[in-house]
Design brief:
The protein is mainly beta. It contains no helices and 7 strands. Strands 1, 2, 3, 4, 5, 6 and 7 form a 7-stranded mixed beta sheet that branches. The termini are far apart.
Length: about 90
């Protein structure tokens, strides 16, 4: 399984409705503040999400050898929580 060097990932403060194998809740993530949010359907290994907080994470992306047809081709693993800020709190 190949792994990438750590990359930054921002996680929004609330889960949103999305559609996977059925209705579910997804995290909204982006790689930079100036990018639009995208849905993240899978969990991030080692990361415990808490609603009401915006996160900056350092993650490692690992390729999945022979993923199932409906499964992701890579997985994310938490390396470090760079910041965790309560929404509405002063910076």
């Amino acid at each position: 399984m190949a792994a990438s060097a750590g990359t930054t990932l921002f996680v929004a403060e609330a889960l949103v409705d999305c559609q996977g194998e059925g209705p579910m809740k997804c995290m909204r993530v982006r790689a930079a503040d100036d990018q639009p949010w995208s849905l993240h359907y899978d969990r991030i290994e080692g990361f415990t999400y808490e609603p009401g907080f915006v996160y900056e994470l350092r993650v490692e992306r690992r390729d999945v050898a022979k993923p199932a047809a409906d499964a992701p081709s890579s997985r994310l693993r938490l390396l470090e929580v760079v910041s965790k800020r309560k929404v509405g709190a002063a910076p």
